[in-house]
């Protein structure tokens, strides 16, 4: 029964994503095609029009990437209400949503790689790094979306505007405080070796993914029915 409900969450999310994809691709590619047609009418340059059409697969890939992030940013509370109505626990909902995230990310990444083959040869290292970026962004959007699902409309506006501003101020203060340390740090061979080491980058990425995963799950488990 638990697996059936988890699979129901996954199938429902894919149905929602499929419907959103149809709309987004229809509008996005439609607007791009109309723009190219207007350019053809004005310039009467058929060769330029045909070259422009080659950009449509790349546009489609970009739309899918943005849509992937948007789905997990804006749907958490709606998914939670749907789960409550269907007797699905937070734990099962979380399992279904995180599995959906991984599967959708793989699908979008795979499509992006296929589209990229039209312009550049396949590179395993670049593809692997691209996949990690996709997962990182998807998890980040899920964590933010789950966090915002805890808030009512008023607090969404307050946090949505205030938090980025607070982060910007803190980053500026941190950068200002480090100005005096930069010469000393730059002169340190140990510091340089740490910064340029590949291990540092991988460790930082793993720590970041663990943090956003933990936040996404924590917020998911705290979502409550509310009055907006």
What does this structure look like?
This protein has helices at 2-43, 46-53, 56-74, 76-85, 90-116, 124-148, 153-178, 182-187, 189-196, 198-222. It is mostly helical. The longest helix is centred in the N-terminal third of the chain and has 42 residues, at 2-43. The mean pLDDT is 83.
Secondary-structure map:
Blueprint: H1 2-43, H2 46-53, H3 56-74, H4 76-85, H5 90-116, H6 124-148, H7 153-178, H8 182-187, H9 189-196, H10 198-222
Helix pairs in contact: 1-2, 1-3, 1-5, 3-5, 3-6, 5-6, 6-10
Global outline: globular
State the major sheet: none
Helicity range: over 70%
Strand percentage lies at under 5%
Alpha plus pi helix count: 10
Number of strands: 0
Can you give keywords for this protein?
10 helices; mainly alpha; 86% helix; 228 residues
Short description:
This protein has helices at 2-43, 46-53, 56-74, 76-85, 90-116, 124-148, 153-178, 182-187, 189-196, 198-222. With 228 residues, the protein is mainly alpha-helical.
């Amino acid at each position: 029964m638990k697996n059936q409900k988890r699979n129901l969450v996954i199938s429902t999310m894919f149905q929602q994503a499929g419907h959103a994809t149809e709309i987004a691709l229809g509008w996005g590619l439609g607007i791009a095609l109309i723009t190219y047609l207007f350019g053809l009418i004005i310039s009467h340059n058929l060769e330029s029009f045909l070259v422009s059409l080659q950009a449509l697969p790349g546009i489609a890939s970009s739309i899918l990437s943005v849509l992937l992030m948007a789905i997990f940013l804006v749907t958490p509370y709606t998914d939670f209400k749907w789960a409550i109505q269907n007797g699905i626990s937070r734990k099962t909902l979380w399992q279904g949503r995180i599995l959906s995230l991984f599967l959708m990310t793989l699908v979008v990444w795979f499509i992006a790689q296929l589209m990229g083959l039209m312009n550049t040869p396949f590179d395993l290292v670049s593809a692997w790094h691209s996949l990690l970026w996709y997962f990182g962004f998807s998890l980040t959007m899920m964590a933010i979306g789950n966090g915002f699902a805890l808030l009512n409309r008023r607090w969404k506006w307050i946090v949505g505007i205030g938090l980025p501003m607070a982060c910007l101020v803190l980053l500026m203060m941190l950068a200002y405080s480090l100005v005096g340390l930069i010469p000393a740090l730059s002169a340190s061979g140990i510091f340089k070796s740490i910064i340029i080491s590949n291990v540092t980058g991988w460790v930082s990425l793993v720590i970041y993914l663990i943090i956003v995963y933990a936040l996404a799950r924590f917020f998911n488990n705290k979502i409550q029915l509310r009055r907006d």
